[in-house]
Amino acid sequence: MFGQLHEECGVFGIYEPVVSNVARSTYYALYALQHRGQECCGIAVNENGVFRSHRSAGLVPDVFTAESLEKLGKGNMAIGHVRYASFGDFNFENIQPLVIRHVKGSIALAYNGSITNASELRRQYELEGAIFHGTSDSEVIAYAITKARIQTESIEKAMEMAMNTLKGAYSILLMTGKKMIAARDPNGFRPLCMGKTDDGAIVFASESCALESINANFIRDVKPGEIISVSEQGVSTNETHCGKGSGLCVFEFVYFARPDSVIEGASVSEARLRAGAFLALEHPVQADVVIGVPDSGLDAALGYARQSGIPYGVGFIKNRYVGRSFIQPTQGEREEAVKIKLNVNRSVVEGKRVIMIDDSIVRGTTSARIVNLLREAGATEVHMLVSSPPFKYPCYFGTDISSQDKLIACRFDSVDEIAKEIGVDSLGYLSVESVKKIAKNAKCGFCDGCFTGKYPVEVPEKLQ
Length: 464
Fold this sequence. Notes:
Blueprint: E1 6-7, E2 9-20, H1 22-32, E3 40-47, E4 50-57, H2 60-63, H3 66-72, E5 75-83, E6 98-100, E7 107-115, H4 118-127, H5 137-150, H6 155-165, E8 168-175, E9 180-184, E10 193-196, E11 202-205, H7 208-212, E12 217-221, E13 227-231, E14 234-238, E15 248-249, H8 251-256, E16 262-263, E17 266-267, H9 268-282, E18 289-292, H10 297-308, E19 316-318, H11 331-341, E20 342-344, H12 346-349, E21 353-358, H13 365-376, E22 381-386, E23 399-400, H14 408-411, H15 415-422, E24 426-429, H16 432-435, E25 446-447, H17 449-452
Parallel strand pairs: 15-25, 18-21, 21-22, 22-24
Antiparallel strand pairs: 1-23, 2-5, 2-11, 3-4, 3-5, 6-7, 7-8, 8-9, 9-13, 10-11, 10-12, 13-14, 16-17, 19-20
Helix pairs in contact: 4-5, 5-6, 9-10
């Protein structure tokens, strides 16, 4: 999908047995995770209990110059974070990692997800005297952990106790003076994996592609509900919260994750190829060429072409120097921006019946503009296929999905009406049954609540 849907963030952490340039390793890893958040980023470094951090709005290479990395210095641990902030929701205090100085010792925290009872917990903590500086859930998580820390001598136990309180989706990296802690919510909504470098460093990341960026070897995914602690004593695990099922967001495979990542044992690229193949079986169309909308629609288009026998073509050229921050103040300027971000390869589509594959349709406005570009380039027919089911329900677990009144699948009663609205000759969506089968041999269950309205956990009434 082109500039419509966002995942909240990505995390990375590294524990080195000796003091080294962990900031630079984290920088490279965040670069690999940039697709998960393009508005803000930060790194916190721990050198034998002394914390240094740098965070700001912007892309990783803009925020972390040679000078800022030099100031972070060396250390034996570091955590990093990239974040997407909804328009109008930007607050510097929300940029992670958060560094908290506490009577029990300093901690730094980065997380990915959404705490469904955050507002309830925030109010409770404020009535107890807590002071919050930002509006993000990360402060609530930090307070839950530090509150539990007062009651126990073990940071691992404090994390376990905090997880009794926190509800929703979270993949957390926590750094204390001497330990690195990784934790994943009991349903495993968001991905988190563990790796190791040749020199013995233990690393954690939202996706395996970040491990490869620093030549770390993938070990395994962190289990839903698992707490992993890394220190001088080695690696230990706590599985008190494990065994409650799993519900990874299926959209990780459809759109969020980088194609070269492997999540829960399944290749993201292969999953998208399978999605395209399923589309070809469910929605056969007579056409001359199959094209994909960059980037996540490309593999699905190739999968459709292979299954159907219709030639695959590169129908769009994406301007990779225009990021998501390229925002125009008026509707007219936003429409013109599509032409700057995406250009049609006229020789591929002119005079042809075109199948265009994208990963989703949210509001429909961007899809309509892209279809119009194909018409202007001479396509005689445009058939749109979508490698996911229609969005009909909100997400409460960290995906920025519009409210139901703005979702095109909720505003119209039928697929034909949606097709007419976006200007295509025909429209087809991947079925819910098939989307859950695209990640072949995945070692997890999936959350498909945004398609079905059925969530793995109960959602608080005030959020509905």
